[in-house]
């Protein structure tokens, strides 16, 4: 075989391959004879296989784009090929992507970004002066005055200053230091980086990371990748998904048996659950973290998505600060935000930041070093983040339009959240907690025993079974609760409220109920 | 201490903090008394320290933005504060960022991106029709027709098709399958992802990754992060940095003693060395990888940067294909490209792709799963990549301007590369190999023994010592060869050719020579 191969490549072949790419020389013919290779490809064992691959990567799961979404893609292809179904399109209610659902970008943000992208437009009368001013400021802070240069690894300086100023305003004057601000490639990148730098130890000293159940499955995926230990604490479904410090304590105590718990992750407002934590709850959590020496991660990407008039977003940073210096000088806290949610919905730009306070002085250098290997986050995403934290203000030319667009988007989100909650609660077998914030409903579905058995016979989690049926019968793609975690014996799914087109949704929800009844009757497809 | 803290946070404080943020209640006063806390902060031990952090992250080094660049930043701040120096600005010749050096973006690319960013511009007469057509095509392939939606994790479909078409054209008809194309957040992201999925095993079975010395230090950094084993193979400086398969064989044999070598990384054109591999060399390498069962990574981000008329870029994919089916059906190959280099220099957009062929069928799903956790690469960067692979063609309205701009940029790069090479070779104590491609010079500097001793007394690598002096005396920031790897006892630095402003550079290079002579004379400062 080697000789044949050698003949082929040692220059016995003409340089111009034949129509199917293989050389046609006599050497190739001879090689084929030696190799006993038919014109079809021979296949030898691969270097990279399920057995040889990184086992930590193999263990990773990410349900938001997992098996049900792959199924949705297959169904879309079938629809394209003209195969008839009970529906004409797949509704992708699996992912928090507002613009994919038709939400319009904020005009001012896109104007500034267009000006930054193609600075010739700074001479165009079609753009307002306040947008031009923002664009010039950003460009002047970029290498070569261009979005095309790498920025500093921590991000463009003036954007970090703007982020710090935003945080200070948001938090009623609690100071934020630009030096503690790091621009990131979406919040996911920041969360992953912080977890990466934290995880160490082996055996029973391996770092434990406390995460809420249900959680946004980035956390469990990164914990798998890093071979850290996942420590679950359960949110209280009976109590609108509240976080109870006793439950934190329970989870921590049990975890100490088999790992070194060092990190506590909070998602507020919650994903998938949508609960907005009370100030008291946040204080309790901070005290717990201080007492038990836990590094706090506060995922606050939905800070602009609070619907319930009884709820208010309090940042962990602000509450920490107001608890006095014993806490505010000592609790290591990383808080995350993103351009993907809120009212701007700029998921595709992969913009985000983290504010990381009370780091050991030697650690900061390590963090920047780690970030520097990837050079910098996309500068266009940094520019988007700048507009998010530094939008038009009253008196500015673009303010009125900005205000209208923002209110329209947030009003639409709030309305759809409420309608979704109400509609789900009309369907027998489905119960939806009040939606306080974020973008999803995470209703509980009561799956009868026979349906559970049917699912198990199909080797599926019962809620995955339900969701697959829902997808096949109605075209609605939601993510089963098993992808986020849930108490044993309970079943849920996560549904993006924005995907509700109301006439259609009633049809869909009617079918949801019908699916339930059929499952209850024990029918299988 | 706990009681005081408890008093402070259990609601004894008024909600409105005082001017310096701390509550002013009597409880706080009592707490302070109990804690014996003065108004200054108390400091307790941190959770995240050099001892407790991820040791793999601690081991990471990335010289391109390492200590010398931090020093350059300090000097810039000193200049800003008015401190007098022998120069008025720092020249950042440490990083391959063309636009930071004043290179202009390609107009057509920025026009298409502006149209995608702010589609109102599709109605503007100021944009050519061919740019609008490209923009519409990209937007139609995006969710919600917006760059602000997440794309599929593998990237926008039509952009992957365009990349595959580009590869096929570039490779003279050798077919590329869009299904093997993955858009990435710069090439760094793709390289890191592939290495991550490959690394496994423990002890003497830990995955070994063969990398060239000198290398672009992303490779060593990622190998550190993943706790894989770095296996060095030395490029031949006497022979214009050629890759010699005997050296590959030597490195592999030695490595088998202590690890499981599974991966062979090639950078072509080379970074920092700039050599362009001959076709024969590529065939030799492919045969070696086939014979020794190594997964091939071909980093080809400089494929558009070839200067020497005696050299030609051959893609690994094309050569592999032309070696016949025993190779082309079996060798697992990942090839990488980026928007950061070439003639477009769009570093800040973090655009890139990888073409991965001959993966085990079960592995592809694992790869897409891993990518899905980060959702998708920035869609703006994907759009930039689309224009790179699908630029204006003859007959199109924008072609002439595009052609002129491209030729101007590449001509300028080629000229500066030659001038840099010639100038360095005029300086005693510096020898620069011919620059065949990429964007850097990597000259060897002959540091006399006394200077080496002086460096060691400062606990610095001798070339770091030299580069620090160069920075302090001339403001030129280059990266010492020790950051890239080099044969024991040799010293180099990497210099971005683009940063040569000619009048200035002669001054700089004159000083380079002066520095050398002073070092030779054994002077220390």
UniProtKB/TrEMBL annotation, chains A, B:
SUPFAM superfamilies: PLP-dependent transferases. Its EC number is 2.6.1.2. One of its GO terms (cellular component) is cytoplasm. Homodimer. It is an enzyme of class 2 (transferase). This is alanine transaminase. Keywords: Aminotransferase, Pyridoxal phosphate, Transferase. Catalyzes the reversible transamination between alanine and 2-oxoglutarate to form pyruvate and glutamate. One of its GO terms (biological process) is L-alanine catabolic process. Belongs to the class-I pyridoxal-phosphate-dependent aminotransferase family. Alanine aminotransferase subfamily. Pathway: Amino-acid degradation; L-alanine degradation via transaminase pathway; pyruvate from L-alanine: step 1/1. Gene3D superfamilies: 1.10.287.1970, Aspartate Aminotransferase, domain 1, Type I PLP-dependent aspartate aminotransferase-like (Major domain). It catalyses: L-alanine + 2-oxoglutarate = pyruvate + L-glutamate.
């Amino acid at each position: 075989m080697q000789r044949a191969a050698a003949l082929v490549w040692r220059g016995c072949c003409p340089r111009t391959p034949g129509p199917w790419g293989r050389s046609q020389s006599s050497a190739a013919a001879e090689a084929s004879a030696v190799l006993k290779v038919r014109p079809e490809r021979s296949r030898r064992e691969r270097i990279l296989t399920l057995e040889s691959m990184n086992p930590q990567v193999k263990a990773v799961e990410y349900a938001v784009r997992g098996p049900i979404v792959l199924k949705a893609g297959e169904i879309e292809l079938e629809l394209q090929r003209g195969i008839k179904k009970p529906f004409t399109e797949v509704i992708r209610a699996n992912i928090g992507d507002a613009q994919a659902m038709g939400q319009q970008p904020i005009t001012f943000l896109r104007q500034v970004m267009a000006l930054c992208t193609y600075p010739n437009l700074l001479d165009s009368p079609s753009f307002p002066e306040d947008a031009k001013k923002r664009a010039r400021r950003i460009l002047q802070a970029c290498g070569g005055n261009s979005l095309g240069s790498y920025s500093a690894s921590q991000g463009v300086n003036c954007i970090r200053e703007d982020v710090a100023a935003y945080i200070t305003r948001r938090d009623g004057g609690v100071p934020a230091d630009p030096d503690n601000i790091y621009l990131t490639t979406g919040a996911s990148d920041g969360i992953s980086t912080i977890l990466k730098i934290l995880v160490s130890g082996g055996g029973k000293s391996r770092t434990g990371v406390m995460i809420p159940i249900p959680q946004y499955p980035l956390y469990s995926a990164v914990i798998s990748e890093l071979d850290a230990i996942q420590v679950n604490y359960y949110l209280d479904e009976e109590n609108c998904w509240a976080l109870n410090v006793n439950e934190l304590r329970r989870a921590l105590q049990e975890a100490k048996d088999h790992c070194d718990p060092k990190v506590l992750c909070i998602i507020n407002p919650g994903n998938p659950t949508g609960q907005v934590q009370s100030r008291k709850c946040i204080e309790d959590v901070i005290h717990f973290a201080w007492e038990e020496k836990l590094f706090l991660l506060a995922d606050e990407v939905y800070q602009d998505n609070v619907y319930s008039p009884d709820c208010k977003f309090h940042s962990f940073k602000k509450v920490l600060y107001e608890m006095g210096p014993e806490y505010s000088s000592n609790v290591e806290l990383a808080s995350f935000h993103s351009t993907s949610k809120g009212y701007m919905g700029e998921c595709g730009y992969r913009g985000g930041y983290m504010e990381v306070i009370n780091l050991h002085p030697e650690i900061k250098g390590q963090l920047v070093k780690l970030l520097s290997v990837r050079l910098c986050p996309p500068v266009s995403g940094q520019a988007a983040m700048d507009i998010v934290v530094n939008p038009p203000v009253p008196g500015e030319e673009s303010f009125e339009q900005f205000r209208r667009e923002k209110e329209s988007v947030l009003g639409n989100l709030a309305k759809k959240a409420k309608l979704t909650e109400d509609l789900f609660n009309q369907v027998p077998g489905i119960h939806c907690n009040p939606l306080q914030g974020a973008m999803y409903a995470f209703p509980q579905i009561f799956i009868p025993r026979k349906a559970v058995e049917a699912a198990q016979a199909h080797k599926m989690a019962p809620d995955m079974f339900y969701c697959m049926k829902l997808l096949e019968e109605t075209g609605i793609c939601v993510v089963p609760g098993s992808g986020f975690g849930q108490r044993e014996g309970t079943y849920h799914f996560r549904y993006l409220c924005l995907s509700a087109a109301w006439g259609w949704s009633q049809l869909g929800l009617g079918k949801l109920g019908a699916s339930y009844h059929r499952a209850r009757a024990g029918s299988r497809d």
